[in-house]
Amino acid sequence: MTFVPLKSVRPTLSATVRRPYRRIMTTSEGTRTTAETGAARPASAPVRGGAPGWTRSISCQWRAWRSARAAWRSEWKHTRAEYRAARRSGRLPDNPGPPPTGFTLLPWLLMGMGAFSNLFQGETPNPWVGALGLLAFNSCYVYVVFRAFHTKTREALSTRLALVVMGLVTCGLALAYGGTWLSFFPLLGLATGAVVRGPWLGRYGLGLTALAGVVAGLRGGWDAIGVVYGTFLSTMVTAAILSLSEAVRQLRAAREELARRAVEEERLRFSRDLHDLLGHTLSVIVVKSEAARRLAARDMDAALAQVTDIEAVGRQALTEIREAVTGYREGSLATELDRASSALTAAGIEPVVRRTGPPLAPASEALLGWVVREAVTNAVRHSGARRCEIGVDGSSSAERIRLTVTDDGNGGEGTETSSTSGTGLKGLTERLARAGGSLRAGPSPRGGFTVTAELPRETEDSTAPAAATASGGR
Predict the structure, then answer these.
(1) Secondary structure in 3-state letters for 92-149
(2) In whole angstroms, what is the distance from residue 246 CA to residue 248 CA?
(3) Does the UniProt entry include the keyword Disulfide bond (predicted)?
(4) Who wins on pLDDT, 66 or 186?
(5) Range 274-296 average pLDDT
(6) Domain presence at residue 74
(7) Rg of the chain (C-alpha set)
(8) 65, 138, 156, 346: most buried, per Cβ within 10 A?
(9) What is the pTM of this model?
(10) Which residues pair with 356 in a beta bridge?
């Protein structure tokens, strides 16, 4: 007799016993791994002895549902915390919820359960007629309420015809059977209130209420009061609630649209201000830097003066950019005229500034200041001019204020490109148009380039004495 050690038999028995019950595990990488060896096989490889496909599908759906529930719970905790914080601060979040649909009015069909019960128990004569009428009413009701929440389908002819069919079926069933069949008049009122809106609602509501009163009076005597009251109330309350809900949603949509437009306008304002500010400032800095470089060899004091001007222009630009970011920057025409004279002189262009008339309103001053800045910047950068004239005609006898900037340069070959490609004169044209003014820019008949801006005179303009005529130049 030969004795076999137990240690050599145990692995064989273990493998033999566990082989029929081999378990397959699905990993996140899409491979199936055997539990006993840990070897991986492709996900497309057939698996013997595995669970059926429908059980695996159910388990996958179960796991997906559990993960979705866990995500919802975590999100709900965050939402609940925000709601409590807003409630403590007195600012509740604006969460209107989903819009009403046809499912909102479907539960009211339970009002006809009494008639259905009588029909089912055989207490109604001619049950087939009652069953067909009940089927026709319910079908039309479902059709109408699901088309009542969209303007196009609500006003369609088929919806109105279905409502008329409901009225005829309701009158026929109520006159034929009476009793619980009179409860279909309030249901007809619900459908009518959901479909009919506007000035015709009162006429339809009163007509339907009168019809319900006549039919119920013929069949139910004094019980007609409840039917009449229920019909009128269901018609008017349904129409009022749905109209109010629609109005609230339209107002909310309009508010969101206004907020979006406000953001776009603020972004456009900032981009225009940044373009105008940096375009003018960088042009002045470049011109003064070139002047300082030319003067450094022969006149160091003059070169240092130009460097000092560059520092002042840079500091002023920082201040203006901060004001533009906060939205509180209001330009001054007098300040822009002084800066224009300085920039033109530094560029070797003779400035001539003429201004007549009383001081202007702050809004007009700001707009015309932007025009002066942009026109002078284009003249310095693109015109190659030797002389630039700026005229402001704000005499009290004129109905409109006129600003003219004319140079004797190359006729605006580069200026037009600059003004139309970015947000320069094009943006100023839009600003002036919103203020009731206009802006024209183009080559002048005698050569050079002319920018003309006109604004209506503000009624709040001061009647101070006319400003003296200023002639530029340093």
Answers:
(1) CCCCCCCCCCHHHCHHHHHHHHHHHHHHHCCCCCCHHHHHHHHHHHHHHHHHHHHHCC
(2) 5
(3) no
(4) 186
(5) 78
(6) no
(7) 42
(8) 346
(9) 0.48
(10) 393
